From TrEMBL, chain A:
This is TPR-like protein. Pfam families: ANAPC3, TPR_12, TPR_16, TPR_8. TPR repeats lie at residues 346-379, 380-413, 489-522. The keyword Coiled coil does not apply. The lineage of its organism: Eukaryota, Fungi, Dikarya, Ascomycota, Saccharomycotina. Residues 1-12 have a biased composition (Polar residues). GO terms for cellular component: anaphase-promoting complex; cytoplasm. Keywords: Cell cycle, Cell division, Mitosis, Repeat, TPR repeat, Ubl conjugation pathway. It comes from Cyberlindnera jadinii (strain ATCC 18201 / CBS 1600 / BCRC 20928 / JCM 3617 / NBRC 0987 / NRRL Y-1542). One of its GO terms (biological process) is positive regulation of mitotic metaphase/anaphase transition. PANTHER family: CELL DIVISION CYCLE 16,23,27, CELL DIVISION CYCLE PROTEIN 16 HOMOLOG.
UniProtKB/TrEMBL annotation, chain B:
This is Subunit of the anaphase-promoting complex/cyclosome. PANTHER family: CELL DIVISION CYCLE 16,23,27, CELL DIVISION CYCLE PROTEIN 23 HOMOLOG. Pfam families: ANAPC8, TPR_11, TPR_8. TPR repeats lie at residues 355-388, 423-456. InterPro entries: APC8, TPR-like_helical_dom_sf, TPR_rpt. Residues 5-260 form the Cdc23 domain. One of its GO terms (biological process) is protein ubiquitination.
Length: 644, 549
């Protein structure tokens, strides 16, 4: 139990105290009839106007109850326990027993609360007591007993859908469904957990906890999420129905139905002026993240964190975008802050792990990811990070095991399958790669990185036309959503390689040129351009580009060998003829140089096949077995130069 | 009238370029302005040229930010400058923001590279460049920014660094067409041009574009002489153009330097020296291009004058790359190569793009027998300026030392494409082809070398003869040997080749049975190794015997 500071506690209570003379705050329902389940209510201050006008009118027992309630609200648990016990002895009212159990629960005395409830046999007769009893057992991690109490299925299934709530509170049936889901989740039965959560939110739309669990953990596939939202009944919220509906929309995944999201944001902004609400901002940030606009996403997250330093709804997306942007220093700060203030929250250790991953200290990163996942075994981000550490070290089998776990927890996210596909691609198992990538594709068909990966896979399969199609699609998508230049570069250069293998050299050159325009000076790109020129029969330009490649300081054996090839080619009689012609033309008088000089360039495009074959051969010899995916946890696959 | 308009334009450009923190271009424009011919009489002209970037029309908030940013830029707080401009929308503010972002990346790169030729020198790249490029390319698509000459200039300059040369050239031309008075655009454009054909096309295009604009045409003329100078051209029209410009800008050191360089390339060293002297006389504290002057003095072997220049530069400013280059040249002339290298390094640390220093440092490394370091410096030289034939030639030599003839062939070829009139390169090429067993090509190269020589170089002729011999073309061998012989008789100059030629000719005639010819070839052989003289005597005896029989 985290106790809020004294200050905030009084702040919360003070209005009640001020109002006490006007509206009596009833800690317990007056008509304490235990058999009437609906009257037992966990909303703390049940206002029954007109019942009691003045504090002096209240009976002695009720005064004690008020005292108990005040003490509970002000976290004076000893007082509450002492007084609650006395009231119970005085009245022997089951309602008072329930409230005493509440006091125990709040004080962390789960065992005593449970004992009290079962001694009074309340957990069999009252839904609310059953709920509290199950909660106690869950706190004590006695999952099987807890499941016994709540039942394996919803006993009210047939009735509860229709059951109208009389007082507008959250239906006990929904809450029960929710904790049933939690129990199943803890027992690793995620399929059942998902069903229970869904049931909970269907029974009562106010059961946000269940909705949050479903959405936050990506338990549903994107399409299913939207379908679920359609089924929800917001009508009982009265005037708030539209408001809550739109808020829920903003919580859904951002892969599909972009229009609806925008619409929801528009309504929230126009009618409810919710623009600056943290959750709405986070939803916008999530949209940006999916679109790979990490910098803007980070800015939004920081806007939220400015108001609320450790806003837990923001942190996962904040950490993810910091990781994408390699903002080591900020990661360091936030992980320190988290570890200091919330050493028991898994997200704190996730942050530490991400920091170590960012500074490339893999063993430490693994240690903290595993700490995070031991604090919450269902914490899928931690699992993915854990897997990344293995992937970074090239331990494919262990990485696959960890990704698979994440994939089980995260059926609604395309990422684990994408990573699995990447691992298999690196291992050269194209069948499994295809399987995982396509299943990832079925979840999210719009991720440029995924499309890139599929393109690479097809390239390796030798299915160049398909590869081209996917890469073009990736390019299209990344242009639509304006993703950052890094992914765009790798897609473009991959496309260049595909065109190169298809023999469309001028197209390939265009792609590589595009890459050059925005990337840093990447030796691989220059080598690729060199290879293309070599195949086009222009050893001069090939040599030039291979030089650029080697000048960037990497001692790439491929580039060296290609350079040797090109220099050999340069010695061929054709090139020498050209050379002598060129120099003599320029050596002639100045004015004659205006003659069209370009004729030499295009003439020899069609080279003898023997040359092409031998160049290919050398490239293959060199690269056979080399990884094609430059694997990195941000999932770019950059093909090395590689030939048929 | 035209001149006044040019003056107005230059005046405006000094302010504008200064306001945009293009300090080097602003300095250039200022020098041009002051160097312009004095007006004959006071004439009032209004600037006809389209006003670009009028700062007064900016919203107050924006121009305030610009002023703040300028101060930060000038105190070298580049990231802060960019941050201050983050919300500004006007093209000039965007230019300044991106420009300072890029410079900031360069500065960081410099810090991480661990010095010239350090461990990380070639691996570290400007981390900000991709963002800046990406933003520029998307900005230049929108109509608000697409015709801003300065954004175009920045884009072009960055593209050039990325080696995306064609687009870079195109972009820079666009920038110049919109605003011809930004010398930075010109110098980037000049760097991007590698061939004569290309240069002619571009200059023609610009001349047509500015057909009736005297001021802009003047800029094109200046650009033209620089381009032709860098391409080692020296033809009649160029000298005339230079003369015209010198008359228009009698006090503009830049034009004078160019004219000195043209003289230098035309091997008129004295002329070049005089021109530089006059530059120094007129502007004693000018260090710009003085490193080139020191090169000329080096070539002329004027030790004392070079020493004087070094002292002078050292007094003006010790920490200018030019000064360091001059001092390095001085040490090099004194054969203190280690010290020379140290000063070149210092020059490069002060300005990485100091073109000459890379090449010259390469030469020094060659002197120190450090081929790998030499290769690395030559490569950098080419990386910054692919038109530097000395660097190409140096690379060829360095690889020749390493016995990698395939490589050195390519470099010699590049050098000769840039400077086809240089016989040294052709001889080197001939040797390379020979080593690579390309006899026909080798013959072609040697013939080219021969045709460029002012006198008949007997060693080349002898090599040609040997090459023909490997091809088994007796007649050609005979012709070449004969040339050597005739040359020897004419000049009465004896050398190893003449002795060898005589012996070959004598043996040849013996085989043919022309004993008297053989005798006359062999009998006069007096210069040569003892073996050769011995052989000659043997032939003489044999021939005499045969003749007597």
């Amino acid at each position: 139990m985290e106790t809020p500071s004294q200050h905030s506690s009084t702040l919360a209570i003070s209005p009640l105290i001020g109002n006490r003379t006007h509206d009596t705050i009833r800690s317990t329902p007056k008509e304490a009839n235990i058999s009437q389940q609906s009257s037992l209510h966990n909303s703390s201050y049940n206002l029954t106007p007109g019942n009691v006008g003045n504090i002096s009118d209240v009976s002695a027992a009720d005064r004690l109850r008020l005292w108990r309630h005040d003490a509970l609200m002000q976290h004076h648990y000893k007082t509450a326990e002492y007084i609650g016990d006395k009231v119970l002895t005085l009245t022997n009212d089951p309602n008072d027993a329930f409230w005493l159990a509440q006091v125990y629960y709040n004080n962390g005395d789960y065992y005593r609360a449970r004992q009290l409830l079962s001694r009074q046999r309340l957990d069999t007769t009252s839904v609310s007591c059953r709920y509290l009893a199950a909660l106690c057992l869950m706190k004590m991690e006695q999952w099987d007993e807890a499941l016994d109490i709540v039942g394996e299925t919803n006993p009210f299934r047939n009735a509860s859908h229709k059951a109208q709530n009389t007082d507008g509170g959250i239906k006990w049936e929904a809450s029960l469904c929710f904790i049933r889901g939690e129990i199943y989740a803890n027992q690793n039965n995620l399929e059942r957990a998902k069903e229970c959560y869904t049931e909970a939110i269907l029974v009562d739309v106010k059961c946000y906890e269940a909705f949050d669990e479903l959405v936050r953990n990506d338990m549903l596939k994107p399409q299913e999420e939207w379908e679920l939202l359609m089924q929800l009944d917001f009508s009982e919220l009265g005037d708030n129905d539209e408001f809550i509906h739109q808020l829920y929309v903003t919580r859904l995944n951002k892969y599909i139905n972009q229009k609806n999201q925008e619409n929801a944001h528009f309504i929230l902004k126009e009618e409810y002026s919710m623009t600056n609400n943290s959750d709405v901002i986070v939803s916008r940030a999530e949209t940006l993240y999916v679109q790979c606009k990490f910098q803007k996403c980070l800015e939004l997250c920081e806007e939220v964190l400015k108001e609320d330093e450790l806003n837990f709804a923001t942190l996962p997306i904040y950490l993810a975008s910091l990781h994408e942007l390699r903002a080591k220093n900020k990661l360091y700060l936030i992980s320190h802050k988290l570890a200091e203030h919330y050493p028991k929250k898994p997200i704190s250790w996730l942050a530490v792990g991400i920091y170590y991953l960012a500074i490339n200290k893999i063993p430490e990163a693994r240690k903290y990811f595993s700490k995070a996942s031991s604090l919450n075994p269902n914490f899928s981000e931690a699992w993915i990070g854990f897997a990344h550490t293995f992937a970074a070290e090239g331990e494919h089998d262990q990485a696959i095991a960890a990704y698979s776990t994440a994939s089980r927890f995260f059926p609604g996210s395309h990422l684990p399958n994408l990573f699995l596909g990447m691992q298999y691609l690196q291992m050269g198992n194209l069948t499994l790669t295809s399987e995982y990538l396509m299943s990832s594709f079925s979840i999210c068909p719009k991720d440029p990185l995924l499309l890139n990966e599929i393109g690479v896979m097809n390239y390796h399969k030798g299915d160049l036309s398909n590869s081209e199609a996917y890469l073009n699609q990736a390019l299209q998508v990344s242009r639509d959503i304006d993703s950052d230049s890094k992914s765009w570069i790798s897609i473009n250069s991959n496309l260049g390689h595909v065109y190169r293998r298809m023999g469309l050299y001028s197209k390939a050159l265009m792609c590589f040129e595009e890459v050059l325009r925005v990337s840093k000076r990447d030796p691989n790109v220059y080598s690729a351009i060199g290879l293309v020129y070599l195949k086009m029969g222009d050893p001069g330009k090939a040599i030039q580009n291979l030089h650029y490649s080697l000048a960037t300081g990497t001692h790439d054996p491929v580039a060296h060998d290609l350079l040797k090839r090109a220099l050999d080619e340069n010695l061929s009689s054709k090139c020498q003829e050209e050379f002598f012609a060129k120099t003599s033309r320029e050596a002639l008088t100045f004015s004659s140089a205006t003659k069209t000089p370009l004729m030499n360039r295009t003439k020899h495009v069609s080279k003898s096949n023997t040359l092409n074959d031998s160049v290919d051969q050398i490239a293959t010899d060199l690269i056979n077995g080399a990884d094609s995916s430059d694997e990195d946890d941000d999932d770019d696959a950059i093909m090395d130069i590689e030939s048929d | 009238m035209d001149v006044e308009e040019l003056r107005q334009n230059l005046r405006h450009s000094v302010n504008l370029l200064g306001a945009l923190n293009l300090t080097r271009a602003a300095k250039w424009a200022g020098e041009a302005l002051v160097g312009l011919r004095e007006p004959t009489e006071e004439v009032e002209t209004s600037v006809k040229h389209k006003q670009i970037h009028n700062f007064e029309t900016l919203p107050h908030r924006e121009s305030d930010c610009m002023m703040l940013a300028r101060g930060q830029f000038n105190s070298k707080e580049f990231s802060r400058c960019a941050y201050s401009l983050r919300k500004c929308q006007s093209p000039q503010a965007v230019f300044m923001r991106l420009h300072s972002t890029y410079i900031d990346g360069d500065r960081k790169r410099e810090e991480e590279s661990q010095g010239i030729l350090g461990a990380n020198d070639s691996k570290v790249t400007n981390a900000n460049a991709p963002h800046v490029l990406k933003e520029l390319s998307s900005l230049l698509e929108s109509p608000q920014y697409s015709d801003d000459p300065f954004l175009l200039y920045l884009y072009g300059a960055l593209l050039l660094k990325q080696k995306s040369t064609e687009l870079a050239t195109e972009t820079l031309i666009k920038s110049i067409k919109l605003y011809p008075f930004n010398w930075s655009s010109w110098s980037e454009l000049i760097t991007s041009i590698t061939g004569l054909d290309e240069a002619q096309l571009i200059l023609h295009d610009l001349e047509v574009h500015f057909a009736h604009d005297f001021s802009a045409l003047t800029m094109v003329r200046i650009g033209k002489i620089v381009i032709y100078q860098e391409l080692f051209q020296h033809f009649e029209q160029l000298f005339k153009d230079l003369q015209g410009l010198l008359e228009l800008f009698p006090n503009f050191a830049f034009i004078k330097t160019q004219s000195a360089l043209v003289s230098y390339h035309a091997l008129e060293y004295q002329q070049a020296e005089n021109t530089f002297d006059s530059v120094l006389q007129q502007d004693p504290y000018c260090l710009d291009d003085m490193d080139t002057y020191s090169n000329i003095l080096y070539v002329m072997d004027k030790k004392s004058k070079l020493s004087y220049l070094a002292q002078l530069a050292n007094e003006v400013d010790k920490f200018r790359p030019e000064t360091c280059c001059i001092i390095a040249n001085y040490y090099s002339l004194k054969c203190e190569h280690e010290k020379a290298i140290m000063y070149y390094r210092r020059a490069l640390a002060l300005n990485r793009n100091c073109l000459a220093a890379w090449t010259l440092m390469g030469h020094e490394f060659v002197e120190c027998k450090n081929s790998h370091a030499a290769i690395e410096s030559y490569r950098r030289a080419i990386d910054t300026n692919p038109k530097d034939f000395k660097a190409w030639y140096g690379l060829g030599q360095a690889y020749e030392v390493l016995d990698m003839h395939l490589y050195s062939l390519y470099y010699y070829q590049q050098a000769s494409i840039i400077k086809p009139h240089d016989r040294r390169i052709w001889i080197a090429l001939g040797q390379c082809f020979d080593k690579l067993k390309k006899v026909e090509d080798s013959i072609m190269a040697y013939k080219r070398a021969l045709s460029l020589s002012e006198y008949i170089d007997l060693s080349i002729v002898y090599k040609l003869a040997l090459l023909y011999q490997t091809l088994g073309q007796e007649a050609e061998v005979y012709a070449n040997m004969r040339t050597i012989y005739v040359e020897e008789v004419n000049t009465e100059h004896h050398s190893d080749e003449t002795a060898k030629a005589r012996i070959w000719l004598a043996r040849h005639e013996m085989k043919q049975g022309n004993y008297s010819e053989a005798y006359s070839y062999a009998v006069d052989l007096t210069y040569g190794t003892s073996q050769e003289i011995e052989d000659a005597r043997a032939i003489t005896r044999a021939a005499r015997n045969k003749m007597n029989n």
